[in-house]
Amino acid sequence: MRPDLLNPLFAEASGLKGVGPGLARPLEKLGLKRIRDFIYHLPDRFVHRRAIADLDEGSIGEQVVIALTPVEYRGGPSPKAPFRVLAEDAKGNLCTLAYFGRNAGWAKKQLPLGEKRWVAGRLDQFGQNLQIVHPDHVNPEGAAMLGQLAEAIYPLSEGLTQGRMAALVQQALTHAPDLPEWCEQGVVDRMGWPVWREALTQAHRDEHKEARDRLAYDELLANSLALMLVRASNRRTQGQALRGDGRLRGALKLPFALTGAQARAIAEIEGDLAQAAPMLRLLQGDVGSGKTVVALESLLIAVEAGAQGALLAPTEILARQHFETLRRMAAPTGVNIALYTGRDKGRARESILMGLMDGSIDIVIGTHAIFQDAVVYRNLGLVVIDEQHRFGVGQRLMLTQKGKGTHCLAMTATPIPRTLTLAQYGEMDVSRLDELPPGRQAIDTRVVAQERLGDVVEALARHFSTGQQAYWVCPMVRESEVADLAAAEERHEMLSLRFGEDAVLVHGQMKPEQKDAAMERFASGQAKLLVATTVIEVGVDVPNATLMVIEQAERFGLAQLHQLRGRVGRGSEKSTCLLLRGETLSEVSRERLALMRETQDGFRLAEEDLRLRGGGELLGTRQSGDTPFRVASLDQITRLLPMAHDDARLLIERDGGLTGERGAAARVLLYLFERDWGVQLLRGG
Ligand code: ADP
Ligand code: MG
């Protein structure tokens, strides 16, 4: 049960004054649902203004606050010209306040002639004159503006303004109660951190490193604690020891020898499975490193030991592909493998459910549907999760574990820096496939200007004439899924003009049947070109596809580019990756694309990505997509996570049930960050 003290924070946003149905969508877009979300909606940056007594004091380009008196209105000569308000300062210097669009009425109301107003905005030059375009604030009273010369700039969505957002956040802050201290007092003192409530207020008021760090630390601590509680609970759980006799694995006829890394990983897994305490292991291996066969061998161990195995894939496409691959590889063993997805209906569904219940199905492969209540296993011994979503792992592990003591192997193709491994997987044991199967050719990666699109299309035509296939990846416009789609559809249309039926389109909004059909045409070689949004990032394996074009490559993160590129270079033919870039590139983008050309080492790319994006920024950039955190930036994760981790460990060692005073505070923390699945694992929690 959530501590009562947190109730005000978990109240719906609709309880805030001024939040009506009109704001529902814009707020939802930002993930702002409850009071808690508002208080943690931290500014991206601050605008700093200087109060000046007269215009002579200000400089061009400076953000100022100044008292001005409007003296004349000037409507534009054409309806398109701005509406201008001529205003003078205390010395009689003139300045123009310019309003574009149809804002004349509003401007007149705000700036009545002859009445002094406090104006905040950026001082610019326009011809011979000084001008402020669309002042940020106009106020009859100076006090408010002078008291807040640093103004928070919040992430917004359409339909919201900074003023509105700031007011909502301030209102939400008044609902924040005092909370007990969950951090180790020594840490708080040493770092000079304010207490929680104070930290929140300060973080919204000004750049306040200590405040921001404290809030980030809280989140990191909550995460570490929750993952450790999962781990501790796991150790207490009695599972079944699975000892295989090797008869099924011996029957496998793999077309290749295992790499050293694969053999090591399998041995580690075998060791874990032989213990009664459920395995909690992460298999980390770059794209193409051969995780699938490790999964298969692990599943076979479970079957040899008389249990069943399940392989959970993030998408249907991938589930289907795993099914085909595993069934082919495992054919000589005679094990019964089934595919189960949410789409199975009627008789087919019934028969799979029966098979799982009576144990005639040894291994099931599917999407999350395999964990629905309706699915009952005779004896599920091992779950392998082909993890693509990078976070929420702890939670998912718990779901698959709950009470059953099932062994669990999570696989990830995302090479993440060690610091982030800790953040996302906490106390899991890790096996790394740090060696690619032999004979892989380097992928020839080139950066090409977008203007040369025509040449690229011709290169594609030549490529197809050799019988090989290709991918075309359209960029992801983060702001809008609809725009993404439009871009992909438009590109597909253009390429269809040239390649006709040979070009198929796949994107995230398609019906699964359509998506499968398109994938199928491509995988079988009927279609030569797969035009896609980033949905292909997850695990498609078509060795004959040896060319990849990525449009607006500068928009992607390095890790993501790496994942995408990993779709080619899977066969024996030489592969090429063309990174199309826009006209204007920032220094960082240039560096990133150069790195892609230079290396194919996923771990190195991940480290560099972290370096290029993360370090040094005062407020940091939150990267909610890549980490399980909303508050902590990459930089903060790197700096503070090791500390949070140690702090969490100490707390659990001293008070594993979280029953002491600090333990109780830590429970509050876990609920605050919705890591309460950790609490629920506590005995009697
Ligand atoms: P991952 O899932 O790690 O990205 P896969 O398991 O799909 O990689 O393997 C990529 C390709 O490498 C597959 O075609 C697979 O058959 C092949 N492969 C796996 N292990 C080896 C090996 N030891 N030697 C040669 N090829 C291998
Ligand atoms: Mg894979």
UniProtKB/TrEMBL annotation:
Transmembrane segments: none annotated. One of its GO terms (molecular function) is hydrolase activity. Residues 455-611 form the Helicase C-terminal domain. Gene3D superfamilies: P-loop containing nucleotide triphosphate hydrolases. Coiled coil: none annotated. Pfam families: DEAD, Helicase_C, RecG_dom3_C, RecG_wedge. Keywords: ATP-binding, DNA damage, DNA repair, DNA-binding, Helicase, Hydrolase, Nucleotide-binding. The keyword DNA-binding applies. It comes from the Bacteria. Residues 272-433 form the Helicase ATP-binding domain. SUPFAM superfamilies: Nucleic acid-binding proteins, P-loop containing nucleoside triphosphate hydrolases. This is Probable DNA 3'-5' helicase RecG. It comes from Novosphingobium humi.
